[in-house]
Amino acid sequence: MSEGDRFNPEEVSKRGLLFGLPYTIEEASLVIIGVPWEVTVTYKGGTSNTPEQVLLASNQIDLFHPELGTPWQKGIAWDPSLMFLKKHSNNYSPIARQYFDVLERTGADPNRSPELLNVAKNLDVANNMMLTKVKESIQKHLDAGKLIGLVGGEHTISIGAVHAIADSKPISVLHLDAHADMRKSYAGMKYTHASAMYHISEHSNVRSITSVGIRSMSPAEFEAISQKEKVSLFTAHKLWTNLFAGISWEKLVDNIISTIEADDVYITFDIDVLEPSLCPSTGTPVPGGLSYAHATFFIKQLVKKGKRIIGFDIVEGGNKFSFEIDLIVNLLFDLSCWTIHSQIEKSS
Ligand SMILES: [Mn+2]
Known about the structure:
This protein is of the alpha/beta class.
């Protein structure tokens, strides 16, 4: 059946379908998985609401991509099978909140308190369960030959996604973020949003990590990055300094892309890489970020340079029915179109 028989892209599209598109998961070349998880969020909450809100707002998208046309005709579908995680996240989130509150109020080191360490261990069990579910889901879609995208949820979810893909082939990771997320562990926990990139970098099939837009890290995180040869760091400060000196964004981007080793690239897009005015309800905003145009031009150049996007996630989105959700919807559409297009570019 052709699209024309099932829906009309010129008309009001149906709410509850991703971008209003009628494809089933079986028909789609790209599957978008919602992962509503926030258990290790330490500051402003709400990111577990993002997947549902993005899905509901996504039918507002107009279906002609100005640069790519209609790559969505290869099929994009929403996979709701991990939306049940919200219930578990809601159960664990108050425990985590209370735990972080104790740490912040008392300044206690959880590694020196058996009682606190026990809470951290229980939260780790929950995070591990989530990561196993993410890995299983992605494995299933990869076996069926699908491309995948994730809508989070906190950054921790990316560990499961990258590990699932890297288990089968060498990949590079493009990491757009305000934060380094390079802690080996955080607050007594192994898997947290602040340690996502550390655990991703530990996978032997992750050949390189290119971190862009970073402007918040601890001394130990900087040390860890310096010691890991596979990680290339491009701080926001360095980018702005070069831009202010008159070097073009295109030149800078091409230089950054040259540090990406593998042809197959996974993009982890933490929304807080953008200027906070664009994402005011993200969990840990930091001023001095990129514009939407800087970020999407980067994705375009990546594909132009012959890289193939094999998967992506958008994480740390906010919790309001607001412009931020619309921004994520647009970013999801852009990333989806470029991901599909990058396969065509490669095979032609
Ligand atoms: Mn971040």
